[in-house]
Amino acid sequence: MTQNPAMRDKENGTTSLSRALGLLTAFQGISPPLSLSELARRAGLPKSTAFRFLTDLEDAGFVERDSQGYQLGLPLFELGSRVPVCRPNGLRDIAMHQLSELHVTTGLNAHLAVPDGTDVVYVAKVNRGQQTLRNHFTPGARHAASCDAPGKAILAFSDPSVVEAVLERGLPRRTKYSITEPRWFRRELERIRANGVAFEQEEASLGIAAVAAPVLVDGQPVGAVSVSQVPPIRNPDRLAAQIKAAAAAISRDCEATTAWAW
Asked: Angle at CA 115, nearest 5°, toward 63 and 142?
């Protein structure tokens, strides 16, 4: 009897759905368009298999193809916009006013990031047109929480089990300044809890410094506000006060919004 291809895939430890999703997630952390060969390599698939699944994804509108390669399609943006944090009265919507104010008062790029497991994902950015710190903080960017100012701000106020999960995963060394020793990392989180603000000096990427404060709703960190600049951090005390004030205002706005959607 002829078996269904999806069933054969499942017996081999993967499914057709997981292969298609693997191709979509292959776009993470890199700017499209991407070639067939690159997508196949990143997804761990033969080129012929990758091409077959990409054709199905293209037919559904989830990817688009031109002479330069493949890129994500608008239907994925539509779906992503329905994620609770991005919906009307979601965290991003509520935070945008304070992010804009923070950008104006500091003259720096302002960001909002939310936790996702042991990582943080950036969901909003307000920046000057003339200032670029590469694509490090572009909405959709994902960073290891332990190397990232918003990530550390969130972890400092998270349940201890969340911190343990980060430590069990291992503290990655993104640069020579990354904290990779658990004892020192715990002490860093203690300082952040005491001060209410996290500093990052080139721990995630060389040439980038950041300051962040957590957004707390009912005492739980649902995100973090940050600003970034070329190091060293200038006027750190004043900057810390401005960021903590913005994060506190967002927290109050979330708690005051009865239709707030996480």
From this structure: 45
CA distance 25 to 22: 5
Q: Is the dihedral of CA 96, 97, 98, 104 positive or negative?
A: positive
Cβ-in-10-Å burial (0-12, 13-18, 19+) of 88 comes to exposed
**pTM of the predicted protein model:** 0.81
- Dihedral-angle region of residue 234 (phi above 0 means left; psi in -120 to 50 means alpha; beta otherwise): beta
Indicate the SS3 state at residue 257.
coil
For residue range 73-100, what is the model confidence (pLDDT) as tens digits?
A: 988 888 887 777 777 788 999 999 999 9
Phi-psi region of 39 (alpha: psi -120 to 50; beta: other; left: phi over 0): alpha
Provide mean pLDDT across the span 238-262.
88
Mean pLDDT of 174-184: 96
Residues 6+ apart with CB under 8 A from 66: 33
Q: What single-letter DSSP state applies at residue 159?
A: -
